[in-house]
Amino acid sequence: MTRSCSALGCTARDNGRSRERGISFHQFPVDAAQRREWIRAVNRVDPQSRQAWRPGPGAILCSRHFAEADFERYGLRRKLRRGAVMVSLMSVSKQHPHTATVFTQNCGMTLDRKKCVGVLASTTW
């Protein structure tokens, strides 16, 4: 089964094509404090329960949501630095309610809002 990036509106899939384009994928940290930071940064709400979204055991984020400085290089491979937190933010436009825009230095894209999974959280935890 191909996994998808957990960032709201991101369409990156953990497959060969993404990796050929230099996109890497990173599992949510095991450390509880670091995991909470990632969940806070993802800023999603479970649409059924309206509670804070909880990542499953296979949940991942793609490298497009982190700053380049958050990575260490090891030859052709790169590793996410300990303590790195997602930097991209998602905004749903009130003027254009059917689009969602991802703001980040690495991936600025506009997506059809219907493709977005989940709901943007309006609160912080």
From TrEMBL:
One of its GO terms (molecular function) is DNA-binding transcription factor activity. GO terms for biological process: endothelial cell proliferation. It comes from Amazona collaria (yellow-billed parrot). Its main location: nucleus. Residues 1-89 form the THAP-type domain. The keyword Hydrolase does not apply. Belongs to the THAP1 family. This is THAP domain-containing protein 1. DNA-binding transcription regulator that regulates endothelial cell proliferation and G1/S cell-cycle progression. Specifically binds the 5'-[AT]NTNN[GT]GGCA[AGT]-3' core DNA sequence and acts by modulating expression of pRB-E2F cell-cycle target genes. InterPro entries: THAP1/10, THAP_Znf, THAP_Znf_sf. Keywords: Cell cycle, Coiled coil, DNA-binding, Metal-binding, Nucleus, Transcription, Transcription regulation, Zinc, Zinc-finger.
